[in-house]
Amino acid sequence: MEEVRPSEDRVVSLEIEDGVAQVKAGSDKVYEPTLLLPPKKRSLLRMFLACMVSGGIQYGWALQLSLLSPYAQTLGIPHQFVSLTWICGPIAGFVMQPLVGYYSDRCTARMGRRRPFILAGCLIICLSVLMIGFSADLGRRFGDTKEHCGTTTTSPRWAAAAVYIVGFWFLDFANNTVQGPARAMMADLSAGDYGPNVGQAIFAVWMAIGNILGYTAGANGKWHQWFPWLKTAACCDACANLKGAFLTAVVLIAISMTVTMYLADEKQLDKADVEAASGRGFISVFGDLFNSLKNMPPVMYKVLTVTFVTWLAWFPFLQYDTDWMGREVYHGVPLGPKADVYNEGIREGAIGLLLCSVVLGVTSFLIPTLCRKLTSKVVWSISNFMVFGIMTAMVILGLVSTKGYNASLTAGLTGPNHTIKALALTLFALIGIPQAVLFSVPWAVASELTTQEDGGGQGLAIGVLNIAIVVPQLIISLTAGPIDKAFGKDNTPAFGIGGAFAFICAVLALVLLPKTRGTSNAVMAGGH
Fold first, then answer.
1. Cα–Cα distance for residue pair 432/494, rounded to 1 Å
2. Considering only Cβ atoms within 10 Å of each terminal Cβ, which end of the chain, N or C, has fewer?
3. SS3 of 237, please?
4. What is the b/e burial string over 342-377, where b = at least 16 CB atoms within 10 angstroms of the residue's CB?
């Protein structure tokens, strides 16, 4: 390399690009490299705050889980059909996550690849939440009964139900629009400095914070007292409480979205790289999606398999956790003389979910260290062994509490045995440990493997991984109810099936998964 002797007549400028200082002389000849500057490392605090939007979204999701099924029934939707409204979740995940992942990998907007989708999704979520919260009032304007909501008998409010369902479906589709890019953005931002496990652990911490705040807001019965204007002729105490909780969701989502948009310093993707990677047009989306699925590295198929079985183990708990507390532990039923006891059990189940979220948040800080020491596959496997043990314990606890589901022995029981209730709450809290793994490690493994193979495509990788989540969700949603009814044992069959899948998955994780530690330093900046 020619020696550079800067002089007044030769040196024109000193330019720094990608950490390399270049001296440009009058002849436009570039002398390089003359000085190496390390790239500036993002602080963990900035990384943490940049992910705040995931906490805001999870706050709304916690409200959705805890409040919307009971609310739907007050609008006249029969109980047996309420579960059908939730099918939009797996459908939205199956359709939106891969498509949004595809487009976010190739987005060339000035604000970056992921933030445009986060912004659009958050705005739609806010509109959807307002539709749901004010569905009773809108239904009254659209022709529903003028009967006051405080009367003992009310007619079905089909216009309100229609507004609610539309808002519910838009909410699920918008949630999927935000969650995929938010995860992919954390993988992008963390890989070069800390590794993908750190980024996904931060994401899981914010999910725990959102859950804690959301379940607390949903359990609060004083919104209508704090804000009396929430009550209307169509919307009494319970409805006003839901409306107040969802209005706080709009505020928190707006704040968290603003922080994320400001602090997530994404770089604009070069259009030339995108055009070289794939064709243009709507049809090419599906072509590229198919090719990406077909050309995934073989190890990714193993990750998808383990993820699929993992979620088969988890969905019985996620669907029936509070119902198990109300039925098996508190000996209540949704309708009839024991309805109040059942509802008390549901509220106790919500407290259990709060404990779960606290444990989840604390454990999330430990996940990166555990993965570095034990490898991600071992951590993933141990978490499934824990789920197996907890599910088995819940089955046994349910059998003991209900005396083997002997109706003649439990007919006079109302309320819980205090020892069994304490054990049940302990199980709810303990399951937060494997849930921290569930919400971080699979995504980190997929991100690291994708980076090692092609240096990018995180949005599509996460979208594809989401398919391995929504399919088992759909399977459990359609089969768990009929199975429980066939056995006549309430939630025990579903929990038993979940425990069996957890054991199978614990073994599969050890056999199939590669040894990754979440420490890849490859920068996830490609879009191809």
1. 19
2. N
3. helix
4. bebbbbbbbbbbbbbbbbbbebbeebbebbeeebbb
pLDDT tens digit sequence for 79-88: 556 667 777 7
| Residues 121-140: b if buried by 16+ CB within 10 A, e if exposed | bbebbbebbbbbbbbbbbbb
First to last CA, the chain: 34
Query: Using an 8 Å Cβ cutoff, are 491 and 323 in contact?
Result: yes
Question: pLDDT tens across 216-274, in order?
Answer: 887 777 887 898 888 888 787 777 888 888 999 999 999 999 999 888 877 777 776 66
What is the tens place of the pLDDT at every residue in 130-174?
999 998 888 888 877 767 665 654 567 788 889 998 998 899 888
3-state secondary structure of 15: strand
CA angle 517, 519, 522 (to 5 degrees): 130
3-state secondary structure 330-379: CCCCCCCCCHHHHHHHHHHHHHHHHHHHHHHHHHHCCHHHHHHHHCHHHH
Q: Decide if 447 contacts 518 (C-beta within 8 A).
A: no
Is the Cα dihedral 119, 120, 123, 125 positive or negative? Answer: negative
